[in-house]
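Protein folds are increasingly written down as discrete tokens. With that in mind, we are printing a sequence and the tokens encoding its fold.
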Amino acid sequence: MHVKAKTVAFGGLLLAMTVVFMALGSIIETSTLFLLAAASFFVGIVVREFGLKTGGAFYIAAVLLGFITAPNKFYVLTFAAMGLYIWGIEAVWRWLEKRPGMLQRHKVFWISKYVIFNIVYIPIVFAFRDLLFAQSVSDALMIGVVVGGQIGLFIYDRAYDYVQAHIWGKMRGRFL
């Protein structure tokens, strides 16, 4: 019973911080992407500490609470895409851990990261073209946006790895 209570309490604390970061992203416009990325990193922390099911429940709760509390719903959708990516790569990592004999697991993991990202990113860019851009954009500019997203993914993913390894790795013992 103690373990479940600890999981719920810690998950609730991280959920509160996630929603606060989403709301702050609406208020502090210059740091929106940073705050949304930081909020999505909490999904990865919950997955790594408590498993995919608990991480999935945390992710759904964060998105629902974000829609209820955050002033800008578009930022909640951005968080939802980022959090889904984090949950997806953690699921792939766990799948690969169960297959130690698989060749080139590192390459499979990186390819999986870009596949998961593009499954989310490319449909959003093309389906919400009018919402994302104030005026009509050319196909060449859309290709530039897609390529820029790949570069952004690389930076976002490196930041996530750094947070998990260095920041959360040092703080983990104090909370759990």
The longest helix spans residues 139-175. The chain has one domain: 2-175.
